[in-house]
Specification:
This protein is of the alpha/beta class. The protein has 17 helices and 14 strands. It folds into two domains: about 220 residues, no CATH class; about 260 residues, Carbon-nitrogen hydrolase (Nitrilase/N-carbamoyl-D-aminoacid amidohydrolase), CATH 3.60.110.10. It has a six-stranded mixed beta sheet with strand order 6-5-4-3-2-13. Strands 7-8-9-10-11-12 form a six-stranded mixed beta sheet, covered by helices on one side. A two-stranded antiparallel ribbon has the order 1-14.
Length: about 475
């Protein structure tokens, strides 16, 4: 099971071998059929260790190399995270075997997809949430992609797990014809859904530019590099080729608090933006000097300045969970940026180039339920990030993949500007129009069409699939108890 979990990671970017996840899940479910509840827990845990232990190795790199946390501390946090995440498939396997004892075809096709979806959904908000490597993210280029704007990542994951169960049923000669027929129906319906246009253009196409400064983490916050950073981004925006309708700079592209540059660099930018007739969205930290709270923020310039404050902070990166419990115990680990404040979840949408924009910062783009709060009002999505924290790992590719999923779920183009890559212009169907290479200075130019309307997922969110999954598990549990009682 350890190997099955590790191999499953190749279904995700940068590999994109999306059928592999189907085989890995099939192997896990087949093992559970022959296990006791305790064995199901053990094999589910081993699957999780392989899956998360391979898929999120970048966490150690981020904490140790760029966060400058000593090896023991970084290793402890990484192993602890992998351990906790591995408990989800472990507990699922135990509960399915303990409470839904039946291995009948009906019980499998109803309970296993429902249980898997609920564990992923719980993982998205328990302990602040970590929905990285949700199985449906791997299907952005598969026949199941057509379901993403209808059912979202959890509904599509439900169908993916269902396909694994149906394929297992065919191999076990359990209702083989019906299982094979349903398998084909799900695939064909997904292909047909890809042809549906859920949203429509809201106006003329906009020319856009994404500026990638490629400034290393070691140099980014050094005071002596501040002027050179300003010069680099300014020249790339105003001197290197035609100026676009909308330009996006990465997360904290301005490495100084807003009040420190509000009378120097900001007025210069406003003057240049008004001269060239363009709008700018850029990351910048903001300090509330009245309450001494500071925020990871995005500011829009070129018109009336406005801010977006990050709502979903990164644990141990931007804040310390359970600080009331651990007190100053982690201060010895030198965890950086551990006291950011949380922005309100009811912020007014930023306006850029004449359109309302749904803004997210870095990690926030992995939370589909957060992105759809700003819809259908927003005409496009903007994500700014500093993927330098991930180094040369799987994470930047996985991060981009999830941004593509958000674009397809919402039917909106996504502009994704990062410090070291991968910066990308993504259309409303989740396809990459233009992208940068990693670890080089670049300006990604292209055009996007603002969109209007709402996909079914935007209208309904995750509630229907969560309620359906709960109902399925309750139904299976009741039926199994009735059969046990009558037997």
């Amino acid at each position: 099971m350890l190997f099955a979990g590790a191999v499953a990671v190749t279904a995700f970017a940068p590999f994109g071998w999306y059928p592999v996840i189907l085989v890995s899940l099939l192997l896990l479910f087949n093992q559970w059929l022959h296990d006791s509840p305790a064995q199901c827990f053990r094999h589910g845990f081993l699957f999780g260790l392989g899956f998360f232990g391979t898929g999120i190795t970048w966490v150690f790199n981020s904490i140790h190399v760029f966060g400058h946390v000593p090896v023991p501390g970084a290793l402890g946090v990484t192993l602890g995270l992998v351990f906790v995440l591995s408990l989800y498939p472990a507990v699922l396997g135990y509960c399915l075997r303990r409470f839904i004892r039946s291995a009948s075809w009906q019980a499998l096709v109803i309970s296993v997809p429902a249980g898997w979806v609920l564990t992923e959904w719980l993982r998205s908000w328990l302990f602040t949430g970590f929905p990285w490597l949700n199985v449906a993210n791997s299907q952005i280029d598969s026949p199941l992609a057509g379901y993403l704007p209808v059912l979202g990542v959890y509904g599509t994951g439900w169908l993916l797990v269902l396909l694994a169960v149906l394929l297992l049923s065919v191999l076990r000669n359990q209702r083989r014809v019906l299982s094979g027929l349903l398998f084909m129906v799900v695939i064909v319906a997904g292909l047909l859904l890809e042809r549906v246009q859920w949203t429509t253009p809201r106006g003329e196409a906009l020319s856009v530019s994404l500026v990638q400064g490629n400034i290393s983490q070691d140099d980014k916050w050094a005071p002596e590099n501040l002027l050179s950073t300003f010069k680099l981004y300014s020249e790339l925006t105003f001197s290197d080729g035609p100026v676009s309708d909308l330009t996006v700079w990465p997360e904290t592209a301005i490495p100084a608090f807003h009040h420190q540059v509000s009378e120097t660099f900001i007025p210069f930018l406003q003057e240049e933006l008004q001269r060239t007739g363009t709008a700018l969205l850029t990351g910048i930290p903001v300090l509330d000097r009245e309450h001494w709270d500071y925020y990871n923020a995005v500011i829009t310039l070129g018109g009336e300045p406005a801010f977006y404050y990050k709502q979903h902070l990164v644990p141990y990166g931007e804040y310390l969970p359970m600080r009331w419990l651990i007190g100053d115990a982690l201060d010895a680990l030198a965890v950086p940026n551990a006291d950011f404040s949380v922005g309100s979840n009811s912020q007014t949408l930023l306006q850029a180039a004449g359109y309302p924009v749904a803004t997210s910062i870095c990690y926030e783009v992995v939370f589909g339920e957060q992105i759809i709060r700003d819809l259908p009002a927003a005409a496009m999505l903007v994500n700014v990030s500093n993927d330098a924290w991930f180094g040369d790992s799987l994470a930047p590719h996985q991060h981009l993949e999830m941004a593509r999923v958000r674009a397809l779920e919402t039917g909106r183009p996504m502009l994704r500007a990062t410090n070291t890559g991968i910066s990308a212009i993504i259309d409303h169907r989740g396809e990459i129009v233009q992208r940068s290479k990693q670890f080089e200075i670049a300006v990604v130019r292209g055009s996007v069409t603002p969109m209007q309307g709402a996909t079914p997922y935007v209208r309904m969110g995750n509630t229907p699939i969560v309620l359906l999954s709960v109902a399925c598990l309750l139904l299976c549990g009741i039926r199994c108890r009735q059969k046990a009682g009558s037997g």
